[in-house]
Inverse folding.
């Protein structure tokens, strides 16, 4: 028969494991909900941007409109939208990379023909750094093209304030991404920049403002 103290330790351990599993499940559910919200906003974004361009496209644009690199304001808007969607899609690589590093490579090593697990993880880390760079470069390009599109389509005013606020969100994420990627900032600044850059709330608010702003224009 187990002594009371031993039984108490077993019971406490079981409660701790149950609480941890419940907490992990709750965190996983919240993360899935955030991704679903981002996906839903992404589905709304193309329609909102297209509607915003159509509403004032017939009134303000004509054959004599000044073009930038052969593209008018609407074309620049389409390019900015595509770059933004590509930037967000690249975010999906992060959870995949974490899974591969923790369990994916180890569980599927035989199936994938991996002989040196340690070397494969190092290669995966190098690939992840390149994916981060691509994500930041594409996001910065979306910010720049979006700014040119905004200036060409509608200068900042009350009607376009929400869209321009969304652009400021893009600018903030681009600056934070640059701080992460560049070598000169101190580690403390890089750490804070990474924490802010990876906030899903900032991304969601930015997309909401862009969608709402184009609907209002």
């Amino acid at each position: 028969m187990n002594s009371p103290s031993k039984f108490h330790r077993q019971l406490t351990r079981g409660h701790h494991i149950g609480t941890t599993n419940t907490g992990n499940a709750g965190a996983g559910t919240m993360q899935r909900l955030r991704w679903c919200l981002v996906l839903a906003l992404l589905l709304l974004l193309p329609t909102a941007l297209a509607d915003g361009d159509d509403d004032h496209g017939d009134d303000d644009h004509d054959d004599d409109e000044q073009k930038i690199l052969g593209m008018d304001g609407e074309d620049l808007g389409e390019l900015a939208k595509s770059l933004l969607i590509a930037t967000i899609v690249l975010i999906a690589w992060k959870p995949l990379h974490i899974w591969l590093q923790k369990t994916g490579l180890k569980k599927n090593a035989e199936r994938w023909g991996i002989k040196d697990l340690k070397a494969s993880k190092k290669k995966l880390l190098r690939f992840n750094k390149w994916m981060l760079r691509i994500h930041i470069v594409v996001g910065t390009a979306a910010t720049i093209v979006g700014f040119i599109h905004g200036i060409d389509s509608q200068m900042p005013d009350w009607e376009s304030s929400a869209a321009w606020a969304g652009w400021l969100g893009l600018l903030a994420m681009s600056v934070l991404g640059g701080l992460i990627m560049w070598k000169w900032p101190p580690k403390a600044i890089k750490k804070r920049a990474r924490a802010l850059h990876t906030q899903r709330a900032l991304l969601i608010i930015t997309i909401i403002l862009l969608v709402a702003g184009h609907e209002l224009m």
